[in-house]
Amino acid sequence: MSASWLLITILGLSALGFFLGKNRALSSVGGNPRDLHSLPNYYGFNVAMLAFVPAVLLLAVWVVVQPLVINASVSKHIPDAMYSDKGSLNLVMSDVRRVAEGLDLLIDQGKMTRQAVQELDVTTTDIRAELAAAGVALGRDVSGDILSAAQAMRAKTAIGNWILTAGALATALAGFFTAMRATSGSFRARNRVEKGMLLLLIGAASIAILTTLGIVLSLIFNTIKFFDLYQARDFFFGTTWSPSFGGGSDLGILPLLWGTFYISLIALAVAVPIGLFAAVYLSEYAGSKLRATAKPLLELLAGIPTIVYGLFALLTVGPMLVGVFGEQGVGWMKGGTAVMTAGLVMGVMLIPFVSSLSDDIINAVPQSMRDGSYGLGATKSETVRQVILPAALPGIVGAILLAASRAIGETMIVVLGAGAAARLSLNPFEAMTTVTAKIVSQLTGDADFASPEALVAFALGMTLFVITLGLNIVALMIVRKYREQYE
């Protein structure tokens, strides 16, 4: 049974347990709910919880652990001559997984039986042609060792799935009958359910913390591996970015950081004035009907996928700028992909981010400060300039810093709008690239994770993580100080 159908079965058993547990509790007191320790629903939730939670936890752990165990076991079928290091072994195992998935696909399409798949031999069957006909692309020919490893992976996966099905159903049934047996009028079902909900909330809160910790540790360990292979001084102070998987790479981060900050600066130069003026108008000048219409329309920009912004930069903004600043115009711009192209489009994307945060911050300024200014004879514009904006300035600065961290982490607009050239230049009409774009390019394809050219992506990610973390911390400190002062 597949994991999805197993989950549906457990859900059905839990739903059944809810109704049976509730009815059993009522029947134990002659149908009078006043004689129950807890409300009737708590008894149903107790049965459903014990039938669902342990079985789903087992399912989640098994789904994560089983592929790791099977992969480690199957990798022993690969001869040492087929790989030189762990990275090349991973590439071989990816082909083994593709072959195994392709064999399952052939069975599902009715082209082969399970018995025939187990008896396949590369000397008598063109496996690659069969898999290609089924839509499975491979990076190498299917050797006998890869085929035998794929057959072993299929067999072990099938055994693991049967064990999972039996174990999860047995766990769900055990929880179901244990809860049903304990269900009676004097059972403290409410205490059990509330304790279970408390553990669920703690687990949900822990997932975010553990996920962040896992991301950070993954970056740290792989960054350490990179600096074991490449000098940190050359990475942080190098002015040339020229990766080559054949060796002899120059992996200086300075051109990438320059492109990142240059594009972000142009984006903020577009987004901050427009977003701030829009926020001031909507909060201080616009009527309630106009505000109710204009603010949602403005925030629609935040819901547009960044790939759409990237296409807009590539197909519309870039050619428009070439028409003005290209050879037909002033002659500054040679192609549509440039820092200015990506910066302008990214600025448009950040406008609702700046305006929404600034609008909330301006509205949080106490009305008494406005009334005091009006009482002294100041006009609305004078009140905005001399009272409201100075009072809201710490929060606005925090919003700008948060927008800056969002701009630094943008990828798709840069890939399509700014080009891929890593250079140090002050000309905004030249193509440049950013840290995020190079992270994507270095990890695209079958990268050898034992090489510095692939591991550099983690060093880039760690550097970007530290920069954005610092910006977020500064922004949150400023916003927190603002809130403490005006709430």
CATH topology value of the largest domain: MetI-like fold
Helix content: over 70%
* CATH H-tier superfamily of the largest domain: MetI-like
CATH architecture descriptor name of the largest domain: Orthogonal Bundle
User: Helix count, per DSSP?
Assistant: 17
Structural class: mainly alpha
Question: How would you describe the shape?
Answer: flat
Helix-strand sequence:
HHHHHHHHEEHHHHHHHHH
Strand order in the sheet with the most strands? 1-2
Low-confidence stretches: none
Descriptive overview:
The protein is mainly α and 487 residues long. The chain folds into three domains: 3-187, no CATH class; 189-229; 241-486, MetI-like (MetI-like fold). It is built from 17 helices and two strands. It has helices at 3-28, 40-74, 86-108, 114-118, 127-133, 144-182, 189-229, 232-237, 254-285, 288-299, 306-325, 339-363, 367-375, 380-408, 412-417, 435-442, 452-486; strands spanning 241-242, 250-251. The protein has a two-stranded antiparallel sheet. Strand 1 and strand 2 form a beta hairpin. The longest helix is centred in the middle third of the chain and has 41 residues, at 189-229. 34% of the residues are buried. The mean pLDDT is 83.
